[in-house]
Each structure stands twice: as C-alpha cells, then as structure tokens.
Design a protein that fits this description.
The complex is a heterodimer of chains A (439) and B (88). Chain A is of the alpha+beta class and 439 residues long. Chain A has 15 helices and 13 strands. Chain A has an 8-stranded mixed beta sheet with strand order 6-8-7-12-13-11-9-10, with helices on both faces. Chain A has a 3-stranded mixed beta sheet with strand order 1-5-2. In chain A, helix 8 packs across helix 10. In chain B, strands 1-2 form a two-stranded antiparallel ribbon. In chain B, a hairpin with a 4-residue loop joins strand 1 and strand 2. The longest helix of chain B has 20 residues. Chain B starts with a helix and ends in a 5-residue tail after the last helix. The N terminus and C terminus of chain B are likely disordered. Classes of the chains: A alpha+beta (439), B mainly alpha (88).
Chain lengths: 439, 88
C-alpha cells in the first residue's frame, strides 16, 4: 500500500479530492495486502475484490481484513486451527455485512490464536505471524493477525474479538490502537464464541478517528453515548505491579493526562477472579466435545478441563455478581470521572522466545504479564481502548488502556485521539509501509 | 500420606498433590477423555487456587468444601460424567 495515506480518514479525503482514483486505491491495497501478508505470515485466506463499491459510502475503498473467526459467505472460518472450509452455510457475519454495506473492502482473513484462547499468536498448524515492529518480538493474541496486519500496513483496520484482552494485547505488542467494545454492543452473530458472556468484537487501527469511523458503521449511532463536554480523566496506577522498565513512561503519561488518582485494587481483583470462573466454565461448555475427542488445542484443553470440573454453582454466582460489581465500580471508582487510565503493559514487550511454548527463554511470568490487567475489564463488560504512548528504554512500544462506562466508546476515542496526536502526530500511528504525507 | 485417606472421606483437608503421589504415576483413562497425572494435578491446583482466591475476596463462602467434591470427581469418577448434562 505504498503511496497511500496512512489512515482511512486520509484515504477517504484523498479520494474525495480526486488525488487518488478509486480503482487505483483498490489495486494498490490488493497488491500491498498480498505482498505484506507473505512477509508477515498473517493471512490465512485472500478474498477476491469483485465490484468496486459505490463512491459515496462512509467507507468506500477502505481496505480491511479480519480475524479468521467471522463467518464468510459459503466459508467456515479457520479459527486458527487451519485454513477454514467451504460450507453450505451462506450467511456472513452481521458485522461484515455492515462494513460491506458501507463500502469497505474485505481483503482477507487473518491469523489468530487457535480458538481465540491464547494471549500469544503462536499456532500449531499454521505459520505464526511475525511482528512488523521487530520480528524477534512476540505477537500477542488472540487477534494476532489483526495486530500484524494493521502494524504491517496490510489493511487500514481489522476486526478482532476480545474475551480477556485479545484485541488489546495484539494492539499492544504491535504498537497500534485497539478498541474492545462494551459487551453486547456489537453483534456477534456469525462470530465463533469462546466465552459468550465475555466475548466482544473490537477494532484495531492506526488512528482513533479510523476506529470511530468503523464503530459508527458497526452499531446504530443511538446505541452509543454522546460525548458530554470535556472528559474528566482519572487514573489508577498500581505501582507494585508495573515493572521499572515501563513504569517511568506509564506513570508520567497517566499523571500528565489524569487529573485524579483513584483506587481500584479490590475491584480489579474481584472481577479478575470471577472472570476466570466464567471464562473457564464457558470455554469448557463451548469446546466440551473437542476436549473429549482429544482435538482441542492445549490452551482450550487446559482451560476447558478446569471449566468442566468447576462446580456449576460457582459459575452461577459469578454471573450473579456481575451487575453488582459493575455498579460498585461505577459508583466507587468512576464517580466524577469519564475516562479511567490504567496500565495495560506492565513490562517491556516480550520476545517470542520468552512467551511462545517451547521457546529457549520461556517464562511463565513474562507470559502472565502480557495480560495482567486485561480480564477484569471483560468481566465488568465495559469498553477499553489500548493506545501506544511511546517507547521504553529498550526502544519498544509501551501502551496504556483507557476505560469508560458502558457504551462510552466515543469518549474513550476522544481522549485517545488527544494522546495519539500529542505522541504520534496528526497522521496516526505509523505502520511499517506508509510514509507519504498526504496533508 | 494421610491426605489420601482424608480426601476419600470427602473432608475439606484434601490435598490433591499428595493424593496423586500416593497413587503413583498413572494415567486416568475414561470412556471419552484421557487426563494424565500432570493434567489432573494442574486442574486440581487451579481449582484450589481459585477456591482460595474467591474465598479471600468474599466471593465464595462454600468454595473450599465444594472443591473437594469436584476434585474427587476428577480423580475417581469417569471424566465423561463431568461432561454429562446431569452434572451441569
């Protein structure tokens, strides 16, 4: 996609001004997707672009590609197990319908951790995607191909799913922006479940404006809360949990943008514990037969076995606690603030050999650190935005997350946009291929 | 080695690791599922850890007692029973 603007907003502007022709833009994106896909090993299926979309739609000509977890017409997704297969089922996932109806191009399906059940993108049966920022770095999961595709310039944006961090973790490891939406805000029809009480569709992109553009296509505008005035920003900085390698940067950004320090330790601990109950139980239910047949991947087998052995009463209690703990969080922590900034990353980004199974320097602690502050957000069901805020002493990207009230995605994106502009400039987070200034 | 006896009696002092040590190395094979000793130990430990965490956070008063029942089911019953609808 060399020669194209870095953001979807920039592309649409160039198309409207006549600086680019629609067919020219489509052709460049198709070629770029194919080339970069081979380089970064993140494409599981390339889709043909047939009729160019009409020129007056919100996303006309914007190339996207999505985690291989969404149903396609006549094609069953591969789910990281393999390449997928033809099927009599003809519907595509509702979210893909909406994007197609808005003129977006679906360039292909992207690699993912098997059954969306891992914090890293390592796979058993397919090539493991490479991190365009530095191929020695791990690619986070489970929407691994989405993070790689956006960072590597294969697509302007990508849909992923997030059950306990699976949009935010790949966004973090690949240095791009990732939105986990409010639970049940975005349709999951045609999306393979892992833990349906926790799964949320999300968007990865190189700018907050691009994500806002996609979000307004994915959901009815009236379902989102409007931004009300200047957002009030608080922050929670659990110092003991954040390693010195990133603490300076994380702490300085949280304190620079947040006007009030809040305490959320007990809320996080409770929500995280109950998330484990729900995720394990529902993973066991979703994949009971594959576990029994010996076909489940190691992550699903381990989590699902735990889930199948959990007392059902624990699960029922964990579900029952949810609205009460959300209310307590909103009343105690979010009182008087609209956006809560919290750590996403607690250590410098891991190398592949530190967190991939069988790696020479494998470390459980490094693996656990990848998703340390992710899961509690899914239990509460609130939206979260991962934003890269700079580089640590090792030269690696560092990200934080912004949390909001249910359906307050637009407020998160407004604050995220300010961070993005202050830190990365006016053209979004750089990819590995977009270089031209189209202002 | 008393852990084995107390756990079979279903008391709350069950020690999964000790139980499996006393049983020696073997693989649990059932009609549909095969769990090796390591998997059983990991599952038991995860259950116990989760039980303790939930209790510490005030989220599961009966969890320590309940976990024993499930651990024993894992250890002594056909795993297919755990998958069956009457257990759900």
């Amino acid at each position: 996609m060399m020669g194209l603007p870095n953001t979807a907003v920039g592309l649409l502007k160039a198309l409207r001004r006549g600086q680019l022709g629609l067919q020219e833009a489509i052709d460049a994106q198709v070629v770029g997707f194919s080339r970069a896909g081979r380089r970064w090993q993140c494409v599981t299926r390339t889709l043909p672009i047939q009729t160019p979309p009409p020129g007056n739609l919100p996303l006309t000509g914007v190339g996207m590609a999505h985690k291989d977890i969404f149903d396609l017409p006549g094609w069953q997704p591969g789910l990281g197990r393999g390449l997928g297969a033809a099927t009599d089922q003809i519907d595509q996932a509702r979210v893909l319908d909406r994007l197609q109806g808005a003129g977006a191009l679906n360039l292909g399906a992207l690699a993912m951790a098997e059954d969306a059940c891992s914090a890293v993108g390592q796979t058993r049966n397919l090539p493991t995607p490479l991190n365009p920022r530095d191929p020695s770095l791990a690619v986070g999961g489970s929407s691994s191909g989405s993070g790689v595709a956006v960072a590597g310039g294969l697509a302007y944006a990508s849909l992923g799913t997030d059950t306990a961090g699976s949009v935010r973790i790949p966004a973090m490891t690949c240095g791009v922006i990732g939105l986990k939406t409010t639970h049940d805000l975005v349709s999951r029809q045609g999306v393979a479940p892992l833990s349906s009480s926790l799964d949320s569709v999300g968007v990865l992109a190189r700018s907050c404006d691009d994500i806002a553009l996609m979000l307004k296509v994915l959901v009815e505008a009236k379902t989102l809360r409007e931004v009300a005035g200047t957002p009030r920003i608080g922050f929670w900085l659990p110092q003991a949990e954040v390693d010195a390698s990133v603490f300076g940067l994380v702490g300085s950004v949280l304190e620079a943008y947040g006007t009030r320090s809040v305490e959320a330790t007990l809320h996080e601990a409770r929500a995280n514990a109950l998330l484990q109950v729900i995720m394990a139980y529902e993973t066991g239910q979703t994949h009971a037969r594959r576990i029994a047949d010996g076909q489940a991947c190691p992550s699903v087998r381990a989590m699902g076995t735990l889930g199948l052995s959990l007392p059902p009463a624990w699960y029922e209690e964990a579900i029952a606690w949810r609205p009460k703990l959300l209310r307590a969080f909103l009343d105690d922590v979010m009182d008087g603030i609209d956006v809560l900034m919290v750590p996403l990353q607690v250590q410098t980004l891991p190398r592949a050999d530190e967190v991939y199974s069988g790696g020479a320097n494998f470390s459980v602690a490094r693996l656990l650190a990848i998703h340390r502050f992710c899961g509690w957000v899914n239990y509460l069901g609130i939206p979260a935005l991962a934003v890269p805020i700079g580089r640590d002493a090792h030269g690696q990207s560092v990200s934080v997350q912004l949390l909001g009230r249910p359906r307050d995605e637009l407020t998160l994106l407004q604050v995220g946009r300010q961070l993005e502009r202050d830190i990365h400039g006016d053209h979004g987070v750089a990819s590995s291929v977009f270089e031209e200034d189209w202002t | 080695m008393g852990g084995s006896e107390t756990s079979k009696a279903g008391t709350t002092s069950f020690d999964g690791e000790c139980y499996w040590q006393t049983q020696g190395k073997r693989q649990i094979k059932t009609a549909g599922v095969s769990l090796n000793q390591t998997e059983v130990q990991k599952t038991v430990k995860s259950l116990q850890r989760l039980s303790v965490t939930l209790a510490r956070l005030g989220l599961g008063a009966q969890s320590a007692r309940v976990v024993d029942t499930r651990v024993l089911a894992l250890a002594q019953q056909d795993f297919a029973t755990l998958l069956s609808s009457d257990q759900r």
